[in-house]
Amino acid sequence: MRALNYPKFISIESFYKPNFLLVADALRWICKRYCDEQEVKFELETEQDRVIFIKSAVIFIYQQTGLKLNPKKLYQADVEAIDELLKAVEPLYKAKKLNNISEGKSDDDQQQNIQFKQIRTTLEEKLSDLGQYHTMVNDITDNAARLYDLLSQETENKVSEHIEQRTVALARQVDIDEVENHVKHALSLLQQELKQTLKNMENIEKDELAVTSKIEKKKSELERLQTRLAQLQTVRPAYMDEYETVEEELRRIYSQYVLKYRNLHYCKQLLEKEKQQQSKSLSLMEDEFEEIEQQEQTATPKAATKIDADLLRLEKGITLYCNAVVIH
């Protein structure tokens, strides 16, 4: 910002606390540097005006440079806003640097100009703070006069008990030996504390060295293990051929198992259907046999003889069929 002749002094300390006015002024100045003809509306009276200003500035810079700034960080106006401002200023700084090189200006001249502008900015800030210093001097003078008045009224406002306590304290004789003993005791305590502190510092240094050595040892061990892992990954295991052969054989056996299982299931279904058909045929034959018996009871002897012959034939057929079913 100083190299680009920004009129105000700006530093990281300026953003330790949110400073929206400084961020807004810097954004307006950056927008003017990109394009003097087009100016962003600069109104910061209300929160809505501030939001509109930040959005307008971000959009304007994006249209001019293609840079995407974070409006939330800019609105916070804290240390995180510095990165966004630097993003917006970087193209301007590069352009100015190239321009200075093309004009043949030396780096020493640029440094002198920057230092001169920095000194001038510092002087302007100090001059602007003179009013605040005058106010502080006036406040100190007023407070001193008020303190003098209060001290002059001390004897009138004090209670007799406080006066007696102060008189007793002032009349008390100080024992030099006792004071010396207290001072020596305090000094010995301080020396002990100093020794303990030095001892703790030595222990911390030893611990630091031990931790550093452990870290180095772990790093070397990690590198060794990584090298070993890389070597193992490049080497094909000796049992890999046998494993692939067994895997292929297992796949073949599994496919045969699946095929046989499906065939067995299909044969079971066929057998079930055959049993159902046989049971239906037997039931039909039994029905015919019952019907023939009924006809036998009502028919003539001649017909009965014929029916007997038919029954014999039917019984033989049933016997042969049952034998065939049992054999199957």
Automatic annotation (TrEMBL):
Keywords attached to this entry: Cell projection, Cilium, Cilium biogenesis/degradation, Coiled coil
Cellular compartments annotated: Cell projection, Cilium
Domain of life: Eukaryota
CC annotations in GO: cilium; intraciliary transport particle B; microtubule organizing center
Keyword Flavoprotein: no
Keyword Coiled coil part of the UniProt annotation: yes
GO BP annotations listed: cilium assembly
Transmembrane residue ranges: none
Similarity annotation: Belongs to the CLUAP1 family.
Name of protein: Clusterin-associated protein 1-like protein
Source organism: Trichinella papuae
Classification of source organism: Eukaryota, Metazoa, Ecdysozoa, Nematoda, Enoplea
